[in-house]
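Fold this sequence, please.
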Amino acid sequence: MTMFWAGILITSWLGLVLLTAELVHAWFPNVKEWSRKVVHIGAGQVVLIAYALGVPTSWGIVAAAIAGVITLVSHWVPIFASISAVGRHSWGTFFYAVSIGTLMALFWDTLPELAVLGILVMAWGDGLAALVGIHWGRHRLLGTSKSWEGTLTMFCVSTLVAALSLTPIAALEWFWIAPLIGLGATLLELIAWRGIDNLTVPIGSALLAYGLLNLS
């Protein structure tokens, strides 16, 4: 019965996220990144429902695979305008689904907190960094398209997410591990292109956390 309600909650949440994104796209058609970031941030919160209800690993992997197929199809068939109408070529949404499935396979049975960490660092860190950089970024970072404002947002939010995610399994170690994860996630986001950060940031952050926990 728990899995039944988990399925209902996750499906309902994703439906609400997509509906909100479509409404944002309809209301603000000239600001395409807003609707994408609603999906980007909102979809990542599914991991909290899965964590709270103890969703099996197999469920998470299958769900991620289905999401990956939908995003691939959406590249050629505009199923959801909020996802496909980004105005630039990017495989980011597909990589997002792949990273969720990969993290579930790697950590869900043993250290689910690390899967939560990786997914939420991507959802909140990268999502808010992009919004800040696009709308308030005024200072370019070392001649790149990135801004200092967006990069600082990525570091701060990723560090906070890492600290909160590690608290259940690292009572004190999170104090020094979280900033290192924030730094690592920020560097991975800086060197990414065409949405590959949706793969490298969550997986890289989780693996870095795993390595640092073992060192501690």
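The CA atoms of residues 133 and 150 lie 4 Å apart. The two ends are 39 Å apart (CA to CA).
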